[in-house]
Amino acid sequence: MDSFWTGYPGVTIITAGEVLAVVVPLLIAVAYLTYFERKVLALSQLRKGPNVVGPFGLLQPFADGLKLLIKETVIPSGANRLVFIVAPLVTFTLSLVAWAVIPFGARAVIANINVGILYLFAISSLGVYGIILAGWASNSRYAFLGALRSAAQMVSYEVAIGFVLVTVLLCAGSLNLGKIVEAQRTVWFVVPLLPMAVVFFISGLAETNRAPFDIVEGESELVAGYFVEYSAMAFALFYLGEYANMILISAMTSVLFFGGWLAPFGVPPFTWVPGWIWFFAKIAVLAFVFLWVRATFPRFRYDQLMRLGWKVFLPFSLFYLVLTAGVLTATGWATAR
Asked: How does residue 326 score in pLDDT terms, banded at 50, 70 and 90?
């Protein structure tokens, strides 16, 4: 395993500075993603959105964070106190540790492990535990029902995501995310795998409990779902985890299908721009699609959500996986790589 930060093969030294170099910008991005979401929703509904705290409302995320920080944390009398506090910490922590294998550039990644895709898949699978723990520890029927919905929803769409990841690694010939990006120098995988890219991104919406798949937080029937009993910073940690996961799904989509840090078309003047700027630009565009979808589509019914996952995405992704494997074998692409 190589460390791209140190440049010494076989040695991986992850320092606090490297972790902070990723976590601090990520937290700032999460804060301003909430701001841009409110702005996008406001524009779509012919409103102004945040415009009071700071110029153009740019300090609104920090005002919201300060408000939640100084509020009292209320724990229900019948709740399991330890699990109640641990649940949001689990959700927030998992949303951060996944970034360890995301390559920001040709030699900019915290842990350049050869099974990066499996690591991301494992971390995304663990994300459901924080929600289940929160729903159970709250000692509330509404919270518990929201947690059960989330578990079923995430399991349903992780199956399709798994087939998509296998399709990508077949084309790249590697589980290493850096090598997957390098395999797209000729053509981005979104071109031959466009249907799978769409399936992956929509499944990402469901994995992060975002509209139109926000059944878990169905205000009309569950009163905010699994975190209905949470307040103050415990409540904020769930939201920080959700928005960090939105950025993570955008980054994964960029790495798997849009060439990561590679410039479009691979010719000047696009290649004059540093790769990390292209990577962040792609993440910003995909994150905007998250917000755009919320402003556009109504919430699915629960039966519609499950039908889409099991009767549409699962068979389609399996069919496209077999088709891709057949084409690669017939053309000799897999052997050549």
From this structure: very high
Amino acid identity, position 207: E
| Secondary structure of the chain in HEC code, one letter for each residue | CECCCCCCCCCCCCCHHHHHHHHHHHHHHHHHHHHHHHHHHHHHCCCCCCCCCCHHHCCHHHHHHHHHHHCCCCCCCCCCHHHHHHHHHHHHHHHHHHHHHCCCECCECCCECCCHHHHHHHHHHHHHHHHHHHHHHCCCHHHHHHHHHHHHHHHHHHHHHHHHHHHHHHHHCCCCHHHHHHCCCCCCCCCCCHHHHHHHHHHHHHHCCCCCCHHHHCHHHHCCHHHCCCCHHHHHHHHHHHHHHHHHHHHHHHHHHCCCCCCHHHCCCHHHCCHHHHHHHHHHHHHHHHHHHHHHCCCCCHHHHHHHHHHHHHHHHHHHHHHHHHHHHHHCHHHHC
Q: What is the pTM of this model?
A: 0.90
Contacts of 324-331 with C-beta under 8 Å, sequence gap 24+, read 324/167, 324/170, 324/171, 324/192, 324/193, 325/170, 328/170, 328/171
Whether residue 275 is predicted with pLDDT greater than 50 in this model: the reply is: yes
Say if CB 228 and CB 280 are below 8 A apart.
no
